[in-house]
Write a structure and sequence with these properties.
This is Small CPxCG-related zinc finger protein. Helix content is 17%, strand content 20%. The chain is globular.
Length: 60
């Protein structure tokens, strides 16, 4: 269970770096290592690449 302070923390899109707090962003686990990944709706729609900061996995 996440704490309220974690819910308020600012998150950035892993592809473009914008602040995604309060937007229609996706949150998911890295398919390789399980690290939490955040992506904005624009990068998702454009299928922009991302790279996991922990394991280096690259995805669309």
């Amino acid at each position: 269970m996440s704490s309220k302070s974690e819910d308020r923390r600012e998150h950035t899109c892993i592809s473009c770096g914008i602040n995604i707090s309060g937007t229609d962003a996706a949150k998911f686990d890295c398919p390789e290592c399980g690290t939490l990944i955040y992506r904005c709706s624009t990068c998702r729609k454009q299928s922009n690449l991302y790279e996991c900061p922990d394991c280096g996995f690259t995805g669309p």
